Amino acid sequence: MRFLTGKPDYDLTYDDVFMAPRRSSVTSRLDVDLTSTDGLGLPLPLVVANMTAISGRRMAETVARRGGIAVIPQDLPTDIVANAIAKVKSAHTVFDTPLTIDPHATVGEALMLLPKRAHQVVVVVDQDGAPIGTVSEADLAGMDRFSQVHEAMSSDLTLVSPDATPTEVFDELSAHRHRAALAVADGRLVGLMTIKGALRAALYTPALDASGRLKIGVAVGISGDVEARVEALLEAGADVLVMDTAHGHQERMISAVERCHAVVEASDRTVPIVAGNVVTADGTADLIEAGADVIKVGVGPGAMCTTRMQTGVGRPQFSAVLECAAEARESGKSVWADGGVRHPRDVALALAAGAGAVMIGSWFAGTHESPGELLYASDGRPYKESFGMASARAVRARTRSQSAFERARAALFEEGISSSRMYLDPARPGVEDLLDFIVSGVRSSCTYAGARDLVEFANQAIVGVQSASGYNEGRPLHSSW
Ligand SMILES: NC(=O)C1=CN([C@@H]2O[C@H](COP(=O)(O)OP(=O)(O)OC[C@H]3O[C@@H](n4cnc5c(N)ncnc54)[C@H](OP(=O)(O)O)[C@@H]3O)[C@@H](O)[C@H]2O)C=CC1
Ligand SMILES: Nc1nc2c(ncn2[C@@H]2O[C@H](COP(=O)(O)O)[C@@H](O)[C@H]2O)c(=O)[nH]1
């Protein structure tokens, strides 16, 4: 990447910069290869942040099916994490995991299940797991909540083989005008695919491990028994270990990364270690020396973050990524740009600055796949609650096993928001809708830079610095002025 008119001597946020188009021989946005350049080779350079309100197993399997990866937060007990890993590893790599219900369950129960997946279908299965009907919101509308699901279900089903290609499923659904195809093996329901899902399955490549199962990452904090946690996570099948703390450039962290590295080296697994968060070349170099493969960059840009206001510490994210990525490259390593992403352009700019992948948290909180319950505001808008991992709420949960005194002391140091409403975008209520949105933006950015892949993109991007009015000029107007 080079600056259009020279590098300024102050630091820049994503909003401060723009990309200039340049001569290109890339004729189609579909010719761009978005494989991550962080050494993980993810087909999609996107990572779901290790935040309790955002990253659970539904999120993990959905994002991995489209080529990215989710990181399960460090606050969860290891046995629960192992269970989440097992579920994701057993999920179908092409078909969605269906929501299922007993025919004698109530309409109220079906209505509770529907928002759990963006495909908005619940499959009615018999005691042998065979599909006998489906219900959608339209089928349940106006029904008594205590009536039974079999009274509302539609039993005209599109059944396909789990080996059917996305194009075959697309054609079947178009022909039958059905919402979802049900994949059945040996009479049992094994997956579900909507028409949009079929299109996506044809366009995206899943992120798979060496055994052809979906990938998943897990975070490890620096408090507690790092070695025991890492050993257990390796055993459970985690594909990436993310050593994570607010101040990644501290000696306790460096020691934790060294110990994590030693456990991985002694195991029979080759699992990359991501460590952070830092925002300087020195921090990057120290974590790489300790054994990290990827450095997580970002102090204070996160939507749930109060660090900069509390402490004055942090760094504008574009400059932080640019500097840390350059430092990591010197050792053949890479960085994840973590936090502050609110538009597809921010992802493109992070990749232009040299990030190997981009980590997103809060933007994905307002989706069907985030772990929280779907709630409704007084104006009827659906939302999910989100909170920061350094908020009083998260600290209370993390310190559950400590003494009352230790908990009270820890609570003094909150650096995050305890409650925020992340509204579901009516046009993009599922995380895959957001992935489509981001991917189309980033593919297009690459072609403007004449880049066929993300290595070329980071080499060829030309970035300029803009004023606040320059940024505002680029914002669309949804009504006249
Ligand atoms: N990217 C960002 O800008 C930030 C991210 N976070 C996220 O919040 C989560 C919790 O992180 P964290 O608070 O580190 O929790 P941890 O539970 O991992 O604890 C951090 C440990 O480091 C010590 N420590 C020393 N200096 C600091 C410091 N300046 N900030 C925080 N801890 C310090 C703490 O000791 P003691 O309590 O005694 O001081 C504690 O023992 C993580 O997911 C992290 O990524 C949090 C803040 C900023
Ligand atoms: N200072 C804090 N930073 C936090 C907290 N919880 C999470 N985070 C960081 O934000 C990113 C995600 O950023 P987003 O803009 O996409 O939401 C996450 O990965 C952490 O690094 C917090 O409580 N305080």
TrEMBL record:
Name the UniProt key words of this record, in alphabetical order. CBS domain, NAD, NADP, Oxidoreductase, Potassium, Purine salvage, Repeat
Q: Name one GO cellular component term.
A: cytosol
Please list the residues that bind NADP(+): 244-246, 298-300
Task: Extract the PROSITE patterns matched here.
Answer: CBS
Q: Name the source organism.
A: Propionicimonas paludicola
What's the cofactor?
a monovalent cation
**Where do the CBS domain residues begin and end?**
91-152, 153-210
List the active site.
305
Q: Where does K(+) bind?
A: 300, 302, 305
Taxonomic lineage of this organism?
Answer: Bacteria, Bacillati, Actinomycetota, Actinomycetes, Propionibacteriales
Summarize where NAD(+) binds, as residue positions.
Answer: 244-246, 298-300
Q: What is the name of the protein in this document?
A: GMP reductase
Enzyme class, UniProt record, top EC level: oxidoreductase
**MF term (GO), any:** IMP dehydrogenase activity
Q: In which pathway does it act?
A: Purine metabolism; IMP biosynthesis via salvage pathway
Sorted alphabetically, the Gene Ontology BP terms of this entry are: IMP salvage; purine ribonucleoside salvage
- Hey, which family's this protein in? Belongs to the IMPDH/GMPR family. GuaB1 subfamily.
Offer one Pfam family short name for this entry: IMPDH
The record lists the catalysed reaction(s) as: IMP + NH4(+) + NADP(+) = GMP + NADPH + 2 H(+)
Protein origin, superkingdom: Bacteria
- What EC designation does it have? 1.7.1.7
Q: What does this gene product do?
A: Involved in the purine-salvage pathway. Catalyzes the NADPH-dependent conversion of GMP to IMP.
